[in-house]
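4.2 Preliminary Data

To establish feasibility before requesting continued support, the project team ran the inverse folding procedure on a target of 217 residues. The structure was first converted into the token representation described in Section 3, and no sequence information of any kind was made available to the design step. The complete token record follows.
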């Protein structure tokens, strides 16, 4: 598939859901993709990209940011406290806040650098032991704590269990967001972004369907 195929499918899913096409941001997930493929998507004019690892992004994005204006970078992978500084320096949006200590560190660094990334709270909707994210019953408290730190929370993010129907997970995330007064819903990947849009996604994170299969994890 190409970027334009995915954009067309997003527009169609929005129409089906009676939503405006501009309601949904497409994050092109460029992790471990060959530079030439990422550069082709940049050349085509797309500007919203997602990466999983701070270190990988630090290695490849500064040169592109010099050459292409208006790029918006999203961090989609787990964030360690010792990587918060480079993450806040490089990323415009962080999708993986899941504990107060991490939020506190981001608040401190953001104030020091005068640069505040938009923040999503990652929710482990399937309560999977190996997966990052706050459990659904901890969302209200974490959002309240972050607001108490003067952090503004943009929305919630989830990665449903691979073996599950994603729709109930998307609905749960939407309910948790609504009751916390949050508009942003980061949900939906290559296999399920149309379902996610039907259930209210504002940000879909699509990698392999745009760039092709990843050869390394
Ligand atoms: C890799 C990744 C994606 C993109 O996955 P695809 O199936 O290639 O679309 C989306 N979100 C997160 C958090 C990821 O790690």
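Position-by-position output of the design step:
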């Amino acid at each position: 598939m190409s970027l334009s195929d995915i954009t067309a499918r997003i527009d169609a899913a929005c129409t089906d859901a009676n939503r405006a096409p501009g309601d949904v941001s497409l994050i092109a997930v460029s992790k471990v993709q060959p530079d030439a493929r990422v550069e082709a998507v940049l050349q085509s004019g797309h500007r919203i990209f997602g990466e999983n690892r701070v270190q990988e992004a630090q290695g490849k994005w500064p040169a592109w940011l010099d050459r292409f204006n208006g790029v918006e970078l999203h961090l989609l992978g787990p964030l360690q406290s010792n990587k918060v500084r480079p993450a806040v320096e490089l990323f415009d949006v962080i999708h993986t806040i899941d504990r107060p200590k991490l939020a506190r560190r981001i608040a401190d660094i953001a104030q020091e650098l005068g640069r505040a990334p938009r923040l999503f709270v990652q929710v482990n909707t399937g309560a999977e032991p190996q997966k990052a994210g706050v459990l659904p019953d901890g969302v209200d408290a974490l959002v309240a704590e972050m607001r108490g730190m003067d952090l503004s929370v943009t929305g919630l993010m989830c990665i449903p269990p691979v073996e599950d129907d994603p729709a109930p997970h998307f609905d749960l995330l939407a309910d948790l967001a609504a009751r916390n007064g949050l508009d942003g819903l980061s949900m939906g990947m290559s296999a399920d972004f149309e379902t996610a849009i039907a259930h209210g996604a504002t940000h879909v994170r699509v990698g392999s369907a745009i760039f092709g299969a990843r050869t390394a994890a």
